[in-house]
Amino acid sequence: MEYIEIVYQIRTPEGEVSAFAESVMVEQSIETPLTVAQRYPFVREHMLGQIRSLTPDGEGGYRAVIALPTITASVDAAQFLNVLYGNASLHEEVVFLDFELPASVRDRFSGPRFGIEGLRRLTGAYDRPLTCTALKPVGLTVTELADLCRRFAEGGIDFIKDDHYLGDHPFCPFEERVRACQQAVNDVAERTGHRAVYVPNLSGTPDEVFRQAAFAQNEGVGAVMAAPMLLGLPFFYQLVRDHLDVPVLAHPSFAGATRVAERTLLGKIFRLYGADAVIFANYGGRFSSSQETCAGIATTLRAEWGAVRPAMPVPAGGMSAQRSAELTAFFGIDTMLLVGGSLLEAGEALTERTRDFMLSVEQAALEQAKA
Amino acid sequence: MEYIEIVYQIRTPEGEVSAFAESVMVEQSIETPLTVAQRYPFVREHMLGQIRSLTPDGEGGYRAVIALPTITASVDAAQFLNVLYGNASLHEEVVFLDFELPASVRDRFSGPRFGIEGLRRLTGAYDRPLTCTALKPVGLTVTELADLCRRFAEGGIDFIKDDHYLGDHPFCPFEERVRACQQAVNDVAERTGHRAVYVPNLSGTPDEVFRQAAFAQNEGVGAVMAAPMLLGLPFFYQLVRDHLDVPVLAHPSFAGATRVAERTLLGKIFRLYGADAVIFANYGGRFSSSQETCAGIATTLRAEWGAVRPAMPVPAGGMSAQRSAELTAFFGIDTMLLVGGSLLEAGEALTERTRDFMLSVEQAALEQAKA
Q: pTM for the complete prediction?
C-alpha cells in the first residue's frame, strides 16, 4: 500500500501531543470514530494512516510525520489538498510544513509544461538570470500601458507582465489591452530584433479566465500570469492542463502562507499544479521575508523531482534594478529577476534604465560564472 | 467616489505603524511608488486609497481601517479577493479582520439563492433547528453508503451530506453513489412520507465539478456541498451562479490555511459568494474554536445585509447528538445541527439514535420557544 507522507508542526503540551497527532491522522483520513471505521474491513485495511514519527522540533512544538494512504488524495485536484491540509488547517495548533509523494501520485500531475528550460528557450538567454517587469499602476489606459510595454521592450527586457490588479476594467478592457501590448512587443521585435514576452494577467471565474486564455493565445502572447490562490488550485490546474499552450507565471496573491510553509505552498504545490515560474516576496524589499525562506522556495522549485520539470523562481516585491549582482550571487542564474516600480520611476528615461538593468544582469552573470 | 472599507490588524512597533499602514494601502491599490502613480491624473483621482483610522487594538497591535476604491475590486470575483487581502496576506504583520461594502458592490453578488428561508422550505421545518448528518467514512461502498442513507432518512433527519473525503473514487464512483443515495431517500419518502435531503459532495476541477453538479441535479438531489477554499472562491462563485438550481452547503476544508478572521471568511465571504449554509468547526468538539468565534460566525451569517439573504450556520466537528439543547440555546433555532460520528457509533441502532436526535432537537426548540 502506498502513502503520502505529510509533515506537520504540532503545538500542544507534551502530555497531549501523542493523542493530538493521532486525532489529526484520523481527521485527515476517515474523520470518523475509530470504533465505527473498524467495522468495515476495506476501511480498516486501506484508509487508515500511520504516525511515522513525532519528535520535538526545538521550537517548543513537535514535528509529526503522518503517512496517509494515496487512495483518497489521488482522486482529484481538490481532494489532494483536502488530504494534505483540509480540516487540519482548522486546528490552530497545526502548521503544514511539507509532504513527500510516491512517484505514482507525483506522476499524476504533469507539473510545469515548460519550466526553466522552456522559459529560457522562449527568450534565447541561457547564461544569465531572466528578467521581468510589470505594467502598472492599475488605472492606466490601454494606450499608456502599451507605451510602457514598448519602452520596456526597447530596453531589452525578457518578460513584461501585467500588474496583478489588471482585470477586465472598463477603463482598460482585457482584449484591447492584450492586443495593444502584444502589438507593441511585436513592433519592437520587427524594428530591433528583440522579442520581449508580454504576459497578460488572467482573472475571474473559470469561464472568464478560459475565455481570456483563448483570446490572449490567439493574439500570440508568449506566456500568461495567474494567481493560483485567488483562483483556487483545482481551477488553476485545469487552466494549465486544458487551456494553455504557453508558460504560466504564478502570482502569490492571497497565498498568505503563515500556516503553510512557503517553500511547500509556493515551491512544491504551485509547481506540481503546473506553474512554470513562481513569483514570491523576496527579502530586502517591501516584504519581511527572510533569506532562508527565499532560498528555500528557490531550491524547492528547482529540485530534482522525477519527471516534474524544475520551475523558475521569481523573487519580487520592491526589488531595485541595482540589486542584480547581489540577487544573482544569491539565487544563481536560474532565476527571473522581477523589477517593476524601480524601473518605472525613471519616467521618460524608462528605456535607458531598462537597458542599464539588462547590462547589470549580464555583468552579474559573467561575474557569477567566474566565481 | 465609492470605497470598500477593509479592517486589518497590523502588528508593528508604534514608531513604524503609520508608514506601514500607508505601505499596505499602496500595496492593495496601485502597488507602485507614489511618485510614479502621481504622474497619471486618472490614477491619482480614482485609484488611491485612504487610511480612515489607525488605533491601538489593546492586544499589542493596531486596528487599521483602510478605504480602497471599488473600481478595481468590483471587476471580477478574483480581483475582489485580491483587493481585500491579496498581497497584504504576504505581510506576516497583517491579519485581515473585516470589510464593509457599499451597496453597489455588495449587490453585484447574488449571495445565497436560498438561504435560511429556502432551506426551511425544503424541509418544511420552521420552528426548530434543522439537522444534518454525514455519510462516512470514506472507503465504504455505494451499497454501504446508500444503506446508511436509508437508515438516517428513516430516523427522520433533514439533511444527509456526503463526507468531504468522498470524491469520484473507483471503490465508490460519484454517479453510482449519487444515484443510489438519492434512490434511498426517495424510497423512504414513499414509504414514510419523510423526505430527507441527500447532499452529495462536489470535488475536482471546474469541468469535473460542473459535470457532477449537472448529474446530481438531474438525479433529483435537493442540495449539494462544496468546499470554497479547496475549489477556489471564483470557481465556487461560478458553480453557484451558473450551475446550481439547488442550495449549496459550504464546507470549511482548507479555510484555516489563511490568516483571515473566521467570521469574515466563513461568515461574510462564503455568504457573499453564494453559500446557503456554512459548516464551521464548533466549540466543544474536535476543534479548539471558542464560543466567541462560533457566535461571531453565526451572527455574521444571519446579519441583515441589504438584499443578501441570511445563510444558515452549521456548527459541526465532533458534535454529539446529546448536545441539542445546549446548542439550540446557544445558537437559536436558525441553525443546522450537523452530527455524524455520534450517530454512526450506534451501529445497528442507527435509525433509532437518529430518531432520538430528532426528538431532542424538537424538545430543545420547544424549550427555546418557552424561554
A: 0.84
